[in-house]
């Protein structure tokens, strides 16, 4: 079974100094700006980059890398899934998926069994005899997922695997990935730029900046209550986490409700009520009032102003809604008119058409 | 013109100057006319008799078997060299690479002389071999060594370039999927460079087949033992150029088959990569 992955990385070029424990069987999202060292971290874990002394990587009681120890990549059971599928162009889809089982020395029958199982799971069984050159981007990435899973890795490294794909293709693959990761049979680390990816697939999150971990913890807590301005700007969006009710509405445990559109086409079309879910929306979709406005907006939240900070020629008002942070972008004129100061009680109205509701990884 | 498939009708689109075509025509003529001249001077009446004479057949047979053996040696010795040169960039490797490519620019006669002073009875290695009862110089083995010496760089250059171009991206994937270095080389790297490997083999074979200078210096000119087709042609031409034409024509045909084979493979490879 999987064990905790303990990582200490020291690396001069590009600079990286990391110490972290990736929980056994859990999925951890790694976020951070370009050049933060995210991909390098994955390459050191995979063994494609050695890392300077005293880099130390252990999975349970097995040592991958330590002073004078270097286990080569092919003996680590660590599989990488990258932005480009990187299928072997000279092999058919089936032979690509068979590559890892064959390398593990399984019998022909066992290899065939594993190939068909993962081709089915990734829904590409009908492409088995095709060459990679004949596949669309989404199909190729599905095959790459099947190939990675057929290796039955102990550690799965995902490096923005959905980034090069169309939005709807990416969304379908995300749903597939969520299904495949649900058995918690391996320790997964996922580099991503997309807070929805992080929230949807990963229980834990690590925020990397300039080669250092600046924040880590439960994805939900870190992203909804960004502890650093960096994390807040990274997300760029408001995340309101709770439970799904009435098919398209996220409600927290104090009864605050945010209505939106379910964008995630999970199998079965949508998320069942009672599942953990998140509402994602831009600060621009949030309007601030002192009193309940006329009409009947579908989302109306009672909030307390925490602070007002400038962003470009606008102001961003951070408010507290039942313990979660919701940001609203308003004009400076509005700040003056409403006399927005910390501690003031306000009413937030959010346009339902600009709220995206998606599933959240279960803990 | 289009029906003939010359492709010249595309001139408008590419916008090449007219003088380039004129000069290119002269260049093409320089290469194409001489082999045609052979055709015109061929004594067709006695062609079959001359080609099937025992000395011609011996020379041809020796040429084909030694060139094939040299090509296999190039494959075995050249591929590891090529992948190492492609994957390491240290000073030592760069110097070795330059040295290995030396036979490309070295006059073959000089190469033959160098081989003689290595494997000859008085050579560094040949002396010891002689003491052990093995003589290399002026044997068929010497022919193969001479051919391998001049042909090896062709294979190394061809394969090394291809291995460099594919980079390590697929090899890294193979490693993380559990394939060790040997498995990765056999199952990923070599299949990916297969077209260049074949091209390199064909070039090596052609170079070995045409070898003259190093062979005559190091292996001599013993009919049936070291007299390959080029040597036989030379010997015949010294007495009577006309008598050397039939065998020459056979070599032209073999070379043509080889060149056309490589070219059509290349074209197909490019189309497949699109």
TrEMBL record, chain A:
<keyword id="KW-0500">Molybdenum</keyword>
<protein>
    <submittedName>
        <fullName>Molybdate ABC transporter ATP-binding protein</fullName>
    </submittedName>
</protein>
<dbReference type="InterPro" id="IPR003439">
    <property type="entry name" value="ABC_transporter-like_ATP-bd"/>
</dbReference>
<dbReference type="InterPro" id="IPR050093">
    <property type="entry name" value="ABC_SmlMolc_Importer"/>
</dbReference>
<dbReference type="Pfam" id="PF03459">
    <property type="entry name" value="TOBE"/>
</dbReference>
<keyword id="KW-0067">ATP-binding</keyword>
<dbReference type="InterPro" id="IPR027417">
    <property type="entry name" value="P-loop_NTPase"/>
</dbReference>
<dbReference type="InterPro" id="IPR017871">
    <property type="entry name" value="ABC_transporter-like_CS"/>
</dbReference>
<dbReference type="InterPro" id="IPR008995">
    <property type="entry name" value="Mo/tungstate-bd_C_term_dom"/>
</dbReference>
<dbReference type="GO" id="GO:0005524">
    <property type="term" value="F:ATP binding"/>
</dbReference>
<keyword id="KW-0547">Nucleotide-binding</keyword>
<dbReference type="InterPro" id="IPR004606">
    <property type="entry name" value="Mop_domain"/>
</dbReference>
<keyword id="KW-0813">Transport</keyword>
<feature type="domain" description="Mop">
    <location>
        <begin position="294"/>
        <end position="359"/>
    </location>
</feature>
<dbReference type="Pfam" id="PF00005">
    <property type="entry name" value="ABC_tran"/>
</dbReference>
<dbReference type="InterPro" id="IPR005116">
    <property type="entry name" value="Transp-assoc_OB_typ1"/>
</dbReference>
<dbReference type="InterPro" id="IPR003593">
    <property type="entry name" value="AAA+_ATPase"/>
</dbReference>
<feature type="domain" description="ABC transporter">
    <location>
        <begin position="1"/>
        <end position="235"/>
    </location>
</feature>
TrEMBL record, chain B:
<keyword id="KW-0500">Molybdenum</keyword>
<dbReference type="InterPro" id="IPR035906">
    <property type="entry name" value="MetI-like_sf"/>
</dbReference>
<dbReference type="InterPro" id="IPR011867">
    <property type="entry name" value="ModB_ABC"/>
</dbReference>
<dbReference type="GO" id="GO:0005886">
    <property type="term" value="C:plasma membrane"/>
</dbReference>
<keyword id="KW-0813">Transport</keyword>
<dbReference type="InterPro" id="IPR006469">
    <property type="entry name" value="NifC_ABC_porter"/>
</dbReference>
<feature type="transmembrane region" description="Helical">
    <location>
        <begin position="188"/>
        <end position="206"/>
    </location>
</feature>
<keyword id="KW-0812">Transmembrane</keyword>
<dbReference type="InterPro" id="IPR000515">
    <property type="entry name" value="MetI-like"/>
</dbReference>
<dbReference type="Pfam" id="PF00528">
    <property type="entry name" value="BPD_transp_1"/>
</dbReference>
<protein>
    <recommendedName>
        <fullName>Molybdenum transport system permease</fullName>
    </recommendedName>
</protein>
<dbReference type="GO" id="GO:0015098">
    <property type="term" value="F:molybdate ion transmembrane transporter activity"/>
</dbReference>
<keyword id="KW-1133">Transmembrane helix</keyword>
<feature type="transmembrane region" description="Helical">
    <location>
        <begin position="60"/>
        <end position="86"/>
    </location>
</feature>
<feature type="transmembrane region" description="Helical">
    <location>
        <begin position="18"/>
        <end position="40"/>
    </location>
</feature>
<feature type="transmembrane region" description="Helical">
    <location>
        <begin position="132"/>
        <end position="157"/>
    </location>
</feature>
<comment type="function">
    <text>Part of the binding-protein-dependent transport system for molybdenum; probably responsible for the translocation of the substrate across the membrane.</text>
</comment>
<comment type="similarity">
    <text>Belongs to the binding-protein-dependent transport system permease family. CysTW subfamily.</text>
</comment>
<keyword id="KW-1003">Cell membrane</keyword>
<feature type="domain" description="ABC transmembrane type-1">
    <location>
        <begin position="60"/>
        <end position="262"/>
    </location>
</feature>
<feature type="transmembrane region" description="Helical">
    <location>
        <begin position="243"/>
        <end position="262"/>
    </location>
</feature>
<feature type="transmembrane region" description="Helical">
    <location>
        <begin position="98"/>
        <end position="120"/>
    </location>
</feature>
């Amino acid at each position: 079974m999987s064990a905790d992955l303990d990582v200490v990385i020291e690396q001069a070029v590009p600079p990286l100094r990391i110490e972290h424990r990736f929980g056994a069987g859990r999925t951890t999202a790694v976020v951070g700006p370009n050049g933060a060292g995210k991909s390098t971290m994955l390459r050191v874990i995979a063994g494609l980059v050695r890392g300077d002394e005293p880099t130390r990587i252990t999975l349970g009681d097995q040592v991958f890398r330590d002073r004078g120890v270097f286990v080569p990549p092919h003996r680590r059971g660590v599989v990488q899934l990258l932005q480009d599928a990187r299928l072997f162009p000279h092999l058919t889809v089936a032979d690509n998926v068979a590559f890892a089982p064959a390398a593990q020395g399984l019998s022909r029958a066992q290899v065939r069994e594993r190939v068909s199982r993962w081709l089915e799971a990734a829904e590409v069984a009908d492409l088995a005899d095709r060459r990679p050159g004949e596949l669309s981007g989404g199909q190729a990435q599905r095959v790459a997922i099947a190939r990675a899973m057929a290796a039955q890795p102990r550690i799965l490294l995902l490096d923005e695997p959905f980034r090069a794909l169309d939005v709807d293709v990416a969304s379908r693959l995300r749903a597939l990935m969520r299904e495949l990761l649900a058995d918690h049979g391996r320790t997964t680390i996922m580099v991503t730029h997309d807070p929805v990816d992080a929230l949807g697939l990963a229980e834990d999150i690590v925020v990397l900046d300039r080669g250092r971990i600046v924040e880590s913890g439960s994805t939900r807590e870190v992203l909804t209550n960004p502890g650093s301005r960096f994390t807040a700007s990274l997300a760029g969006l408001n995340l309101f986490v709770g439970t799904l009710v009435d098919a398209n509405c996220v409600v927290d445990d104090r009864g605050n409700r945010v209505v939106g559109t379910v964008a995630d086409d999970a199998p079965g079309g949508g998320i069942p009520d009672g599942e953990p879910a998140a509402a994602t929306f831009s600060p621009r979709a949030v309007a601030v009032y002192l009193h309940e406005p006329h009409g009947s907006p579908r989302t109306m939240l009672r909030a307390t102003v925490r602070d007002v900070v400038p962003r470009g020629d606008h102001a961003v008002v951070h408010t507290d809604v039942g313990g979660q942070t919701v940001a609203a972008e308003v004009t400076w004129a509005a700040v003056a008119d409403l006399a927005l100061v910390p501690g003031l009680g306000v009413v937030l109205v959010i346009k339902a058409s600009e709220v995206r509701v998606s599933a959240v990884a279960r803990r | 013109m289009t029906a003939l498939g010359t492709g010249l009708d595309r001139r408008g689109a590419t916008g090449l100057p007219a003088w380039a075509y004129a000069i290119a025509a002269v260049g093409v003529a320089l290469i194409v006319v001489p082999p045609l001249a052979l055709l015109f001077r061929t004594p067709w009446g006695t062609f079959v008799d001359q080609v099937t004479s025992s000395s011609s057949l011996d020379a041809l047979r020796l040429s084909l078997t030694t060139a094939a053996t040299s090509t296999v040696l190039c494959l075995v010795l050249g591929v590891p060299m090529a992948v190492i040169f492609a994957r390491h960039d240290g000073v030592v490797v760069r110097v070795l690479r330059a040295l290995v490519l030396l036979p490309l620019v070295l006059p073959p006669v000089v190469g033959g002389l160098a081989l003689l002073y290595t494997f000859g009875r008085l050579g560094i290695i040949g002396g010891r071999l002689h003491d052990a009862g093995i003589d290399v110089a002026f044997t068929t083995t010497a022919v193969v060594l001479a051919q391998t010496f001049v042909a090896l760089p062709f294979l190394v250059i061809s394969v090394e370039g291809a291995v460099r171009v594919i980079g390590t991206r697929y090899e890294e994937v193979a490693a993380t999927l559990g394939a060790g270095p040997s498995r990765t080389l056999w199952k990923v790297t070599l299949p990916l460079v297969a077209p260049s490997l074949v091209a390199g083999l064909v070039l090596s074979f052609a170079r070995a087949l045409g070898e003259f200078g190093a062979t005559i210096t190091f292996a001599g000119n013993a009919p049936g033992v070291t007299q390959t087709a080029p040597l036989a042609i030379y010997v015949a031409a010294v007495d009577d150029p006309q008598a050397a034409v039939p065998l020459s024509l056979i070599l032209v045909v073999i070379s043509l088959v080889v060149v056309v084979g490589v070219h059509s493979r290349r074209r197909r490879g490019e189309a497949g990569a699109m």
